[in-house]
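stuck on this one:
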Amino acid sequence: MLKKIVLVLFFIFQACSDGLEKEDLIGIKLRVNYYTEECQGIILQQCYLVQEGDAIGGTNWELFYDPILGFEFEAGYVYDLDVTVTKVDNPAADTSSLKYSLNRIIQKIKKD
């Protein structure tokens, strides 16, 4: 009987889910530099300079072309962010297959 209840709950949960699998969500830490740089994606734009994971605190910065939903960048501050990365099914042509969403700002440090 318990086995049947568990199976029913499992199918109900699956039917009510938003289609995201657990592996479709990834939490990462990003450091965003205090200024942006001009870069060429689909259009000419301003890109964040970021460090991720073990690269945080190093000297190398990478261009970051995507927006971070919920994050409002203010030049002159270095940000440490907790971000969720979600896979985008069937992204539009020339757009990212990943969506970045801010969970929280870990720290915001004024750059002299």
Remarks:
- The chain has one domain: 21-110.
